[in-house]
Amino acid sequence: MNEETIAKKFSRRTFMKGMGAGVVGGYAVMPTMEKAANDADDVAGEKREWLSLTVNSQKVRVQIPPQTTLAELLRNRLALTGAKVACNHGECGGCTVLVDGKAIYACHFLALDAADKDVLTIEGLLTGEEIHQLQQSFVDHDGLQCGFCTPGQIMAAYALLQKYPKPTREQVMAGMSGNLCRCAAYPKIIDSVLAMAEKNSWQ
After folding, report:
1. pLDDT score of 34
2. 73 near 62, Cβ under 8 Å?
3. Is residue 154 packed enough to be buried (19+ CB in 10 Å), middle (13-18) or exposed (0-12)?
4. If exposure means fewest CB atoms within 10 Å of the residue's CB, which of 44, 67, 74, 87 is most exposed?
């Protein structure tokens, strides 16, 4: 196979479409969260409190140290690693998830403050192994490059579209301004959100 044939067969577009589904979805098969939480190692003598909440439509009850952030609970106890902890200062938006429909930075949100609330993560947008239309829009419109910030971008966009189903470009820019992209893929991110908004029903 010569170089020209390889180039035609493996274009950047083909690569991104194949990679994109994995990036925007986190992973296709969610673990049993109760088991993941119960398998976590205990620290001898550490004070813990019971927490009950709903994560991606699943009831969860777990004991955690009171200082545990929502990001730590999701990633370390429930094995939901789609929310990325990058700055850990509530500035980059890589850890964005929804709590009762509102986008928050999970790295600066105590898990205990999510008691009896509904938490939605990037994994929760999946239907079996099928990604959400919003995730697909990011793939179709190249709204990702390295993909690290993409889950947070998508969750921020999801919250935005819940509030403004037909946003203007300015509303998208303002609504997504709390999510940083180190690859500077902002034009494509905005295009991905606007393209999704053009559909009559996206939920």
Report:
1. 55
2. yes
3. buried
4. 44
